[in-house]
Amino acid sequence: MTPNSLARRLIDRFQHGLPLCAEPYQAMAQALGCCEAQVLDCLQHLQVAGTLSRVGPVFEHTRAGASTLAALAVPEDRLHQVAARVSQYPEVNHNYAREHRYNLWFVLTGPNRAHLDNILQELEHDTGLMPLDLPMLTAYRIDLGFALETTP
Predict the structure, then answer these.
(1) What pTM was estimated for this model as a whole?
(2) Is position 104 within any domain?
(3) Which of 16, 38, 62, 145 has the most CB atoms around it within 10 Å of its CB?
(4) Neighbours of 87 (CB within 10 A)
(5) CA distance readout (Å), 90 to 15, 104, 108, 119
């Protein structure tokens, strides 16, 4: 199995439904017919190449506590500095640049709304920028995935 073939099969099979067990990478390898080291090497290669940003769960926000989408209007010359500051919080599970006045967007998840408010206040204090706070009012489950392998 070539590294490219393994990457495609890995992404196809595990875009959804990562194994919930003590050794998930071993379970993934078993399902793909390879060894755990190959899975880990493949994931590392995808991350280094910029193809994969993270492997991990996405929680239903109402079960995890509280969640909000936030944005900052960051001067271009400070974008990397402010993004690095935002990413220091373990509560941030997405952080990305956009071409817009509000050019840095991130998702915060925490135990309760007060916790999120504290983080937003800290970020405002530390950066001098006022976060745009956009809590979800209605949930829409998209569950998006893309097939990479063709099936007959």
Answers:
(1) 0.62
(2) yes
(3) 38
(4) 11
(5) 22, 17, 9, 11
